[in-house]
């Protein structure tokens, strides 16, 4: 069933709920009415973000978004008056989405042919939209998602590709030719996104990733509790090139798919394929701002109290490191590690 058809059904249900309420009072079951409103808000936000990154947006697409926002505003008033929502956290998240979408859609409508202009005008709006989309549960019957996450994680490096792996810490110094990798184990099923801004000021996504150096790794989301992930792979490491300067790693953890980060990175990849440097720079700058604006409290990695080690092999040589823990990572927050590449 096509998405446009599903949205049409949602709008019909919403209109029916208004008419029924006006005629006979709040007779529709509370959960069904709220789930429909919430689903339409999420789908409208996703469609608006997709339009935001399009090279060209049709006026009809903008008008459709306006109509859906108008419908959502009416529905929010109705459910607020009736108390037809499961929690203030969910209601506030939907309200925040609808409020933000109004300005976003009008900006898209006035800049139909320029991704760069839209992003420049909607920098703060896009960042603000991300958190409510992460909080709102997309599965029926779930509660607002606010719980924190725990990980076992190691950032390690190997000088010149020789000797043992050592911990890579924030503010550390590595040199061209050094090897490094990231190893993590989620305590719960979750979603992980890892980005690196390298010394050439180019942003890469290290996780999820399908392959590295012609080796298929199929690192994808969601990640499974208790499974250990090796980035780039269990038997390979990244090697620093000759371009020196600061390098930054961004580790993002969420409890459900991060729509904003996914759409943003897809747009960045498309701009690279189009060889549109101005567009690429604007999209990358906005994505980095989104990551930095969602920086969580600085978490210091702690050695695992049980003394558990992670082991692997590279080129037939065995390695092991004591696991470290990253605790109480807030849903959608970003842990940042920066090192100097000399």
Describe what is shown at a glance.
This protein has 342 residues and is α+β, with helices and mostly antiparallel strands. It has eight helices and 16 strands.
Characterise the protein shown here.
- This protein is α+β, with helices and mostly antiparallel strands.
- The protein has two domains: 3-135, no CATH class; 149-341, no CATH class.
- 42% of the residues lie in helices and 25% in strands.
- It contains eight helices and 16 strands.
- It has helices at residues 3-24, 30-52, 59-82, 88-110, 115-121, 123-135, 259-273, 277-293; strands at residues 149-158, 166-167, 173-174, 179-186, 191-197, 203-207, 209-212, 215-219, 229-231, 238-239, 245-254, 302-303, 309-314, 317-322, 324-329, 334-341.
- Strands 1, 2, 4, 9, 10, 12 and 15 form a seven-stranded antiparallel β-sheet that branches.
- The longest helix has 24 residues, at 59-82.
- Mean pLDDT is 86; it is low at 18-32.
